[in-house]
Every structure is written in structure tokens, then in C-alpha cells.
Amino acid sequence: MRNMRIKPLSPNPSRLKASAMLAAALGSMSAPAVISTTGILSFIAEDATAQASDSDTRAKAQTLRLLSKAITLDVEDQPLEDVLNYIMDVTEAELEPVYLDSLSSTGMDPDTLISLRVNNVPAITVLERVLKKAERIEAIGEEYTWQFTDIGTIECGPKSVLNINSRIELYDIADLIMAVPDFDNAPDFNISSNSGGGGGGSSPFSGSTGDVDIESSAERANSIINLIQTSVEPNQWANAGGDGATLTVYGTSIVVTAPDYIHRQIVGYEFWPARLQTIRAKGDQRWIQIKPDPKFRSIP
User: Domain-by-domain residue ranges, the chain?
Assistant: First the structure.
């Protein structure tokens, strides 16, 4: 393929942080503490090193590192398949594009012609731009995105196909649904009141009604559920007629059944630095965006 080249940049040192983001991304919820997983519910500020728990997790982290490499791409009317193959060749990251073929009636057309010019841009960003261009050109009424497979490779294509590969995650929201009373109606104290003597004096306290309105745990849980379902991929949830995700309450936790790209937008990735998982907002929607690590922009 002509006019495609790579120009790596010098690496920058960085530290991994443990992330927990659900409260911060929900924004309007006043949470006294963070949940016990990573994600849209809250950011942990202190430094820590994210540990890979198994080989699959390490493979996912390595794939993101490979796709942090800065590449230069200059193509005009090149087939989508060739462009994605180029990204794989120069980064050594394994992609699994979902193409139209004899076995699938939904997928990307490998022959879609892509024109794109970028200079020293992280490969993951280039991948997202290529997918967005293919989505707009093909205009099949589907949105295209990427997500991790169980073994750490990246599959990309229409969301309706990616929805087939879902997993169940349980997120503890006990701290978020714990209602702390706000006593804003404390009585006034008047030391000049006559409270001594034979018991005929008035009380020095006045003005308190004694009523405190406390939102129930169930009400707070419903608020969290509604906020997630309306802010992260709102069209994919079953309650909105979608086929991508479901959410239920189990005790003080929420159980989310969804593909990786939806979990990513809710909770991020625990193996990726917290500083590289930023909360984005557009209208009423809020989600976590995974950013490449500049430390790995140049990989030998």
C-alpha cells in the first residue's frame, strides 16, 4: 500500500495508577466514598501500581501499550481492510475486524475506500477515526467501535455484532446509596432565655422542626441506575429497546450484563493508568474515554 508510513516519538515516563471512577463520572451524585471497582463512579487520587491479575489482563494492557504507538498515516481511497492491516503491521497489535462475508450479514465492508491523513497520532486514536469514517461512508444505520476480546485482542465493527460478546459484572454501590442526613434545621440557641428558677422559664432552644427528609437507599439506587442508562450508550439498554445491555440491583450492588465497550465507558480499565481514563460529556451523555500512554508512544 502506498503513502503509509510510521514515525515513532520518544517515550515519556509515567506511573500506573489504580482507578475507581463511577462517582466522579455520575457527577450529580454526592458519594461519600468510591465503589470497590474501577470506573465511572470515582477517581482514586493516590498513586498505586495496577497489577495484572492473569495472563488475559496482561495481554489487554500490552495491546493498549502497542496501540499507544504514534503512527503517521497518509492514504487516499485505500480499502478499509488494507488500512486496518497496516495498523496491525506497524503496532504488532492483533485486531479482529468484523467484516461482511458469506457467514455474516452484518459487518464492515473490507473494500470501503478510506482517505485519512494523520501525523504522529497514537494508533488507538487512528483506529477510532478509521472506524468512524467507515461508519459514515457505509451508512448502514450502525455505529462502529472497538472492544477487547477475552484473550486481549481487539475486535472492531458494528455495535450490534459486538453486543453478542457480553459479560456480567457486579459493581458495589453500597457507599453511594448510603444516605447521610443533612441536619440543616438545627434549633437556635438563646443564652438570654430564662431557663432557671422554679421551672417556669422558657427553653433556650427554638426554631427546630425536628423533621429531616432522607432519601431512601432504593431511591438512590434507582437514581444511579437511571443515570447510567441515560448517560452511557442510552440506545443499547434493554429498557430503551436495545439489545446491548441490562442492569439490575442485587443487594447493595448493581449487576450489569453488557459487552466490553459498554463496561469500558462505565468503569474504565483497572489495569490502565487512572490519569489516562478521562470523563467525557456530550449533552446528557457521560462516558470514560481511554487515552494512550505517552510512555509507550515509541516502541522498539
Answer: 4-165+265-290
